[in-house]
Amino acid sequence: MAETDTTGNSPGGAAGSPGSVALEDRDGTAVLRVDGALDLALAPKLRQLAERATRLRPAVLVIDLTDVTFLASAGMAELVRAHRGLTGSAPLRVVAGSRITLRPLELTRLTDEFAIYPSLPDALAP
């Protein structure tokens, strides 16, 4: 069953950072697609949908950052929260193929903690 839930900025969020997070169920794999600036305005939506995805008990959780235009520390904190919330239940895979997303993860050494994939098809592969 495919479930899609798309949300935008929180009420009163920054007008300069439009974005969305969508949750999709792909045959037991939960995919969170993030679009726009993953900053303080969008990070709560990522948290909300990551928690919802965890309750679905997926075999794998994929967070797709392909369409992220800016990755702030608040966004990276939510990636860490999602990773630690899944410990033991499902692996987390992060799609970060562009310099915009990969470089901040490298600088903070989060590439040592996360399984990083260059594209969504690569992350979905068994």
**H-E string:** EEEHEHEHEH
**Biggest sheet features:** 6 strands, mixed
Mean pLDDT score: 86
How many whole angstroms does the radius of gyration measure?
Answer: 13 Å
**Count of beta strands:** 6
Q: How many DSSP H or I helices?
A: 4
Query: Strand-residue fraction?
Result: 25-35%
Note poorly predicted spans: 1-15
Share of helix, binned: 25-40%
Shape: globular
Biggest β-sheet: strands ordered side by side in the sheet: 1-2-3-4-5-6
What's the N-to-C terminus distance? 19 Å
Quaternary organisation of the protein chains: single chain
Give the class from helix and strand content and strand pairing.
Answer: alpha/beta
Fold and architecture overview:
- The structure is a single chain.
- The protein has 4 helices and 6 strands; from the N terminus they run βββαβαβαβα.
- Helix 1 (43-55) runs parallel beside helix 2.
- A 6-stranded mixed sheet has the order 1-2-3-4-5-6.
- Mean pLDDT is 86; it is low at 1-15.
- A hairpin with a 2-residue loop joins strand 2 (19-26) and strand 3 (29-38).
- It is α/β, with parallel strands linked by helices and 126 residues long.
